[in-house]
Specification:
The protein is mainly α. 86% of the residues lie in helices and 3% in strands. Helix 2 (40-82) runs antiparallel to helix 4 (198-351) and helix 3 runs antiparallel to helix 4.
Length: 352
């Protein structure tokens, strides 16, 4: 095929297809004539020139995107190199959290132990309080019995005094009766002194003296018997009361001793209970403070981890976007290289 004029076409490309372009240069500087416009080869070459220009723009865009991608990868590498201490290994935090959980568990166990000890001490204190109340009731009952016995002793003393007064009164009446009897006997003897029949009058006098003696002896015997019975009953009653008083005093002394021991035990348990309660309050405060402190630290670490994870996700998203864009451009580049190869084949065929 002959053309009105000859045109030299060249195709060259850089490494990897970069800088690839198609250029054409006229072999002679003559002007365009009508035959060139009517020749179909000229239209084909113009189309190829247009495609060559489009290919050059695509390759330039691919080159710029590859350069931007390389710069972004360099920035990512520099960012990782400048932050070597930023790692996403949470094992150190897991160890800290595990240690804190163990401490919290131990504190909870100690707290439960203290609560159990406090409850046991409270139950023991309630038991001792109940025993104290029972002993106090027994003591009051014993004191009431002692007071009643003392009242009974006072009544017996008053009765004894009354009986002694009655005995003295009877003795005085007996003395008065004896005196009256002697006076009557003296008067009777004086009146009977002038009579003749002395023997007849003397016999009744002897009978009266004997009767008075018998009466006196009878009253004295009855009085002595009553006195002895009263003294025997009184001594027996006093001995019984004294024995009961001694027994009650011993029981009272034992109750007082046991009550004193119970008071000492109750005071000791109260002191131990207050100590355990103070220790429990201190441990509760320390536990709350520890939980608050480590909770704040954990919250700050969680915020830091979340921020770093967000940054990492953003970087991964950017890398993914750049990768997809790079793959898309690489696909376009591959297709363009195939087209360039096809154009080169066509141009080489035209030159032949």
């Amino acid at each position: 095929m002959s053309y009105p004029y000859s045109r030299t076409l060249s195709v060259y490309g850089g490494a990897g297809g970069r800088g690839t372009r198609i250029s054409s240069s006229p072999s002679s500087p003559r002007a365009f004539d009508l035959a060139d416009g009517l020749d179909p080869c000229v239209d084909e070459k113009a189309t190829m020139q247009n495609l060559n220009n489009r290919l050059a723009s695509y390759l330039e865009k691919v080159h710029s995107l590859e350069k931007a991608n390389a710069e972004l990868e360099q920035k990512i590498r520099e960012w990782y190199e400048n932050r070597p201490d930023v790692t996403f290994d949470h094992t150190i935090f897991q160890d800290t959290i595990k240690d804190l959980r163990n401490k919290i568990q131990l504190a909870s166990q100690d707290n439960a132990t203290l609560i159990l000890a406090a409850d046991n001490a409270k139950l023991a204190a309630d038991d001792f309080k109940l025993k104290y109340e029972n002993e106090l009731a027994m003591r009051r009952a014993t004191e009431a019995d002692t007071a009643n016995l003392r009242k009974l002793l006072d009544e017996f003393s008053l009765r004894r005094s009354d009986l002694e007064i009655q005995i003295e009164t009877l003795k005085e009446e007996l003395i008065i009766l004896k005196r009256n009897h002697e006076e009557e006997m003296s008067l009777a003897s004086a009146e009977a002194g002038g009579q003749v029949n002395v023997c007849v009058d003397a016999a009744p006098s002897m009978d009266l003296n004997q009767a008075m003696t018998e009466i006196r002896q009878h009253y004295e015997a009855v009085t002595e018997k009553n006195r002895q019975e009263l003294e025997s009953w009184y001594e027996t009653k006093i001995a019984t009361v004294q024995q009961e008083v001694v027994t009650q005093n011993e029981d009272l002394q034992n109750s007082r001793t046991e009550l004193k021991e119970l008071k000492n035990t109750s005071q000791r348990l109260q002191i131990e209970l207050q100590t355990h309660q103070s220790m429990r309050s201190a441990l509760d405060g320390e536990l709350e403070e520890t939980q608050a402190r480590y909770g704040d630290q954990l919250a700050r670490l969680q915020v830091t981890v979340t921020s770093l994870e967000d940054q990492l996700s953003q970087f991964h998203a950017n890398i993914g976007n750049n990768k997809r864009e790079y793959e898309m451009l690489l696909d376009i580049k591959t297709r363009l290289e195939h087209e360039i190869a096809e154009y080169r084949r066509l141009l080489d065929g035209d030159d032949r």
